């Protein structure tokens, strides 16, 4: 239990918002510096994404050997991954183990949502207010809300009139939802929708999948591990630990080194087949870099994957609806799938093509499209998130001179390397826009890098008897220009998706994640640090 009376008004060194991957590691790291830290999280437990997203079929698309913390050899030795791709329950167990193992809970206020954080120019400290009445005064605020924490819930006309059960995947009730023998509708076919659909189809009476944009997906092979597997994986940890920082996207697998069109067509096909058969995201994250910027290379790989989709769906009309044609492979997030396309061969599954028959509204009984009403007992919204910015906009951040982050970001979303924001001194931001996180980096790798950078920065301030750090407007502009220059060479930045903010009405169309690769990002961050925080005002 948090004792509000004792916490209230006690000066802290740092408040961390979020007790997921970044938040827990940030707490551990700042404690090592001897700082007084409090983590605040709206959830009742640790895990962030892996607390909230307990929908059926939720699991990582990153293999467990690179989806973990590297700060403790003991932890690496003790924790036994059960499978290559841990499901939500296993991931959540991992975070609970970490929280207990390092005695983190005593510094976490659960069931507490941060409502505002206000910088006080006179004291050069932040005042943080929460919905429980807990208020905190702190030198630093560190956001660790994750890039995908603000779900898109109220979306459809008439949604509140539905008499059945309506749930968003990212707010899945902890006690579960009984889907047995029910008529279920799933709206959305992103990484989440795909996992839900392939998982619940055998259990429900009837499943209707409402698809607006067809999605590519690559088959997952998810072996369960025994002790011998774990020993072999552990033996490679020293190598893995080094490799993750050197690959474009923070996995331990390097990409193809030969230029796509320097390879004869037959051999290219063989390579694509091998990447496909790997049962991982290798085809996307460690395939050919040209997929991201060369339309001809992208076309060939897209055709290859389209062929694979068509092969697995019996009804050619359904296969055509499921085959993406309006964007190239890899320009939106590519999910792994486990029988997703074959699910549409089942007699109890229907696909509704929302491009042909859009949703008009949700009714008392179900969903009405332009082709008529479909009666349902349960509607599952797998409709995604306000990515990158949503978590920030949910909090009223006020920086120097009372400036509002919400207002500033209405004009333009700006950050410096996704780590700080001009006008908001001593606010550090993990998983903010314009870092590689979410889209082009295995999140745990990048988050751990950001936490380390922030920790070293705070340590630097203390050691140099400085209290405040803030990026200059010029440095922020330079980073944005650099971000845009790289982004605009890619096909990704021209494609509609949450990567570019196009899933939110009125959001600026701009690639949210840095796409220069993790090594380039780390180099840029290191350079700033080595030059005594060049581009930042330190006082
Ligand atoms: O969300 P999404 P997500 N009417 O935005 C549709 C991570 N993740 O939750 O494409 C009808 O990708 C929307 O249609 P369209 C991962 O990074 C990781 O699936 O906009 N449809 C789309 O089909 C992922 O990328 C893991 O046309 C509407 C879907 O809803 C990110 O989370 C697992 C609509 C939303 O797809 C987000 O994935 C799951 C409307 N009004 C998620 N609005 C793993 O690691 C939206 N849609 C395994």
TrEMBL record:
Keywords annotated in UniProt: FAD, Flavoprotein, Monooxygenase, NADP, Oxidoreductase
Alphabetized Gene3D superfamilies for the sequence: FAD/NAD(P)-binding domain
GO terms for MF: monooxygenase activity
A Pfam entry, by short name: Pyr_redox_3
Reported cofactor(s): FAD
Domain of life: Bacteria
Family the UniProt entry places it in: Belongs to the FAD-binding monooxygenase family.
Record protein name field: Steroid monooxygenase
Species assigned in the record: Hydrocarboniphaga effusa AP103
């Amino acid at each position: 239990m948090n004792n509000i009376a004792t916490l209230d008004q006690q000066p802290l060194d740092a408040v961390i918002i979020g007790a997921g991957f970044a938040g827990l590691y940030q707490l551990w790291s700042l404690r090592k510096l001897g700082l007084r830290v409090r983590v605040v999280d709206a959830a009742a437990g640790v895990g962030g994404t892996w607390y909230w997203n307990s929908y059926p079929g939720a699991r990582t698309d990153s293999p467990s050997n690179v989806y973990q913390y590297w700060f403790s050899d003991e932890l690496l030795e003790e924790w036994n991954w059960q499978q290559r791709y841990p499901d939500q329950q296993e991931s959540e167990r991992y975070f609970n183990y970490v929280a207990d193992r390092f005695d983190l809970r005593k510094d976490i206020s659960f069931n507490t949502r941060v409502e505002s954080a206000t910088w006080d120019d006179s004291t050069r400290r932040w005042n943080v207010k929460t919905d429980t009445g807990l208020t905190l005064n702190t030198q630093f605020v560190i956001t660790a809300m994750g890039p995908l924490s603000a779900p898109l819930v109220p979306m459809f006309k008439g949604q509140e009139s539905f008499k059945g059960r309506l749930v968003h995947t990212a707010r899945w009730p902890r006690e579960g939802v009984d889907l047995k023998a029910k008529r279920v509708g799933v709206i959305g076919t992103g990484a989440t929708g795909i996992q839900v659909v392939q998982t619940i189809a055998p259990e429900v009476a009837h499943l209707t999948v409402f698809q607006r944009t067809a999605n590519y997906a690559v088959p997952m092979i998810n072996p369960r591990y025994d002790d011998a597997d774990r020993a072999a994986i552990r033996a490679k940890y020293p190598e893995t630990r080094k490799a993750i920082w050197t690959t474009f996207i923070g996995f331990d697998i390097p990409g193809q080194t030969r230029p796509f069109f320097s390879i004869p067509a037959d051999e290219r096909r063989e390579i694509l087949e091998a990447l496909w058969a790997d049962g991982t995201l290798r085809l996307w994250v460690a395939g050919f870099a040209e997929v991201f910027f060369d339309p001809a290379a992208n076309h060939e790989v897209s055709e290859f994957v389209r062929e694979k989709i068509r092969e697995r769906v019996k009804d050619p009309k359904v296969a055509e609806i499921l085959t993406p044609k309006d964007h190239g492979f890899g320009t939106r997030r590519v999910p792994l799938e486990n029988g997703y396309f074959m699910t549409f061969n089942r007699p109890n599954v229907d696909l509704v093509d929302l491009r042909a028959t859009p949703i008009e509204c949700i009714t008392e009984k179900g969903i009405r499209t332009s082709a008529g009403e479909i009666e349902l007992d349960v509607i599952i919204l797998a409709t995604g998130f306000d990515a990158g910015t949503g978590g920030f906009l949910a909090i009223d951040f006020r920086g120097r001179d009372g400036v509002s982050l919400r207002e500033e970001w209405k004009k333009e979303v700006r950050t410096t390397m996704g780590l700080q924001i001009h006008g908001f001194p001593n606010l550090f931001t993990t998983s903010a826009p314009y870092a590689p996180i979410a889209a082009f980096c295995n999140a745990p790798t990048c988050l751990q890098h950001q936490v380390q950078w922030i920790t070293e920065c705070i340590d630097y301030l203390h050691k140099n008897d400085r209290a405040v750090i803030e990026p200059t407007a010029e440095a922020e502009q330079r980073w944005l220009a650099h971000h845009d220059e790289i982004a605009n060479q890619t096909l990704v930045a021209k494609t509609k998706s949450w990567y570019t903010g196009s899933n939110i009405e009125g959001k600026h169309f701009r690639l949210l994640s840095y796409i220069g690769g993790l090594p380039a990002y780390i180099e840029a961050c290191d350079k700033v640090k080595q030059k005594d925080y060049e581009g930042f005002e330190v006082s």
